[in-house]
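ok so for the tutorial part 2 we go from a plain amino acid sequence to predicted structure tokens. step 1 is just haveing the sequence, like this:
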Amino acid sequence: MKLLRAVNRILGELGEHPITSIENKNPSVAVILQAIGDVNYESQVRGWWFNQFDTTLYPGPEGNIQLPEGTLDWDFKDHPSVIRGDYLINPKNMSQDWNNAGIRSVSGVITIYVDFEDLPPSFAEWVTAQAGIQAYTNDTGIDDVVNLFMQREQTALNQVMNDHVKAKRYSTRNRRMYKRMVSHIWR
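step 2 — the prediction. this is what the tokens look like for a chain of 187 residues:
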């Protein structure tokens, strides 16, 4: 979804006229843009099918492991490691130098920030709905219109969760508990 389209959708729901550029000096546009940016960031930190990946990172020539731009979160798999600025540090010796520790690579799950215009459509709808609620309450306070925004936000969230479950291919059949239950039933 284009950012201009999201802003115009929220403006329309606020009873204001659409704009042709997000560079518009309208104070409501500034509030909406801030809300979209805040909600987009806060919503992505959780990690979703489109911004969370298994990866292996390698130290550079100086022994530092630099994280990709836009890294929101890191969850190590093999070697304990934590984010410090733009780098991973080894919590055992509180150092960025992985070569001294004899570690050649670190595997884990990384969560990356995705710009609004690059979001999957369902997630962009959800962010727009949440931003509409936030912008409206920041701009005018809470009243009945917020209920409409919240209904749209809940519908969008349901679609995001459906997309997430499909993309991650969650299934109870892949769980050990399911396999134990099936083997027990067929004894």
